[in-house]
Design brief:
293 residues; alpha/beta; Nucleotidyltransferase, domain 5; six-stranded parallel sheet; 9 strands; 43% helix
Length: 293
């Protein structure tokens, strides 16, 4: 179960982070606690940072402008470091998140860690070991994207299959239909966030507290309102969808009842033996022989 903090400061090195990945990072960071500070540092006059504009507006990130005072020198790194130390000395933040693959932030991560705050890093798999080890936790952005992709593929696989003329046409139509349904289904985003919350907050039994999940969803989407989806509360939605979620009621403090949930593990569909090709059967037999060996 992930550790949760009261106040999180998120500092982004835009020169060494990709705008296309920041949504996945924000979803993951939200599981650590309430993000109080969201700042991105860079020289925004540079053309290669143009893709950040839409993300900064959408996710309400403060864009900190820092011009380069000399050619070849990145002044935004120093601005981020100075801000981090100033925020540290306010003693308001118990967790600092550094989004960068730049080894120059190793010393900053060490200093923050020595000061007693929790340090989380996000960067590419090419990030140097020293920076990774200076953090209490370091998360690879590539893995966040892989998790989201696998979740979307699982949802598409669980879409009901509609018979169509010709197996090839049926498969193509099903794939296209699954993608369209994922975009139109008003519950798809909710299910995706519930899955992330489950992975972050699950206890030893595999169940997550629906209250923690609700708090997490509000952090990621402040405008989320379950009533707009026809339910009075989140536990009601979970109980109303037994094909998606297993729910369990537990005793909390006093008279409080905790509603726990976990996703239903669906088995992948199997083709009938008659429809399998000879090549497929040979592959399965080869795999079986290898296991027996």
């Amino acid at each position: 179960m992930i550790k949760e903090f009261e106040s999180v400061a998120l500092l982004i090195d835009a020169d060494n982070a990709q705008a296309s990945k920041i949504e996945s990072v924000l979803k993951d960071v939200s599981a650590y606690g309430r993000i109080v500070i969201k700042r991105a540092y860079g020289n925004w006059s540079k053309p290669h940072l143009g893709s950040w504009e839409s993300k900064i507006k959408r996710f309400a990130i403060s864009a900190i402008q820092q011009f380069d005072f000399a050619t070849g020198k990145n002044a935004s790194d120093m601005a981020l470091t100075i801000d981090a130390m100033e925020l540290l000395h306010t003693e308001k933040y118990d967790c600092f998140v550094l989004v960068s693959s730049d080894s120059d932030f190793t010393s900053l991560a060490i200093k923050l860690h020595e000061s007693g705050v929790y340090v989380v890093g996000y960067g590419n798999k090419t990030t140097v070991e020293s920076f990774r080890n200076a953090c209490d936790e370091f998360n690879y952005v590539e893995e966040l994207l892989e998790e989201e992709k696998s979740g979307e593929e699982a949802e598409a696989e669980n879409e009901p299959e509609t018979p169509a003329q010709g197996s090839g046409a049926g498969k193509a139509k099903k794939t296209s239909r699954s993608k369209k349904n994922a975009r139109k289904d008003p519950f798809s985003e909710l299910d995706s966030l519930l899955k992330i919350a489950e992975e972050r907050y699950a206890d030893d039994t595999g169940f997550a507290n629906s209250s923690s999940a609700g708090t997490y969803i509000k952090r990621v989407k402040p405008d989320f309102n379950i009533k707009l989806l026809g339910y009075s509360k989140l536990p009601e939605y979970l109980k109303d969808n037994p094909e998606k979620y297993v729910t369990e009621e537990r005793a909390g403090k006093g008279t409080v009842k905790l509603i726990m949930y976990k996703s239903v593990q669906k088995q992948p569909r199997r083709r009938s033996s008659g429809s399998r090709s000879r090549t497929t059967r040979k592959s399965e037999n080869a795999g079986s022989e290898a296991q027996n060996a």
